[in-house]
Amino acid sequence: MENTDEEVVDVVDVDNNVLYQVNKTEAHQKGLLHRTIIAEIIDGQGRMTLVNQAADRQDAGQWVSPVGGHAKAGETEEETLKREAFEEVGLKGFEYKRIGQVVYNRNVLGRQENHYFILFEIYSDAPITLNEESDEHRAFSVEELKREIELNPKNFGGAFYVILENFYPHLLSKPA
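and the corresponding structure tokens:
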């Protein structure tokens, strides 16, 4: 491992078994599979809150899942979820459920992101406080989200489509 000041992540296999640790930069430079926690926020009306990414982020200017971040080496899924939810949208003390996992490998911003996505749903009506990674947030009803995806598919980030295809395919369905 090179830069000791940088976040260290667990490199995992496709079954989520830890193989060894590296810093995040090395994981991205070498395309090593490592954990990322993703969470959708669902409010009491069943609406899904998305955030619009800031200009300096992957998927800039596009709607994406509101919580997403690397698990630190040795950190549990739940610890990462709670840390990232607080850092990115100011939430704490919420109900949640683990939905599943999927591997997502892409080249973006000059790096190879080979992520073992672990998806959660957060159930909360608490106000959202964004950090610098996002410019705005919006709660979409199921119908609003389906319509927006159909009419403006480029308004949504690539990683969000992986989540939709694997866990919410009904949001991508078009009327026959």
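(Above: one complete record from the training split.) Helices lie at 24-30, 77-89, 142-151, 158-167.
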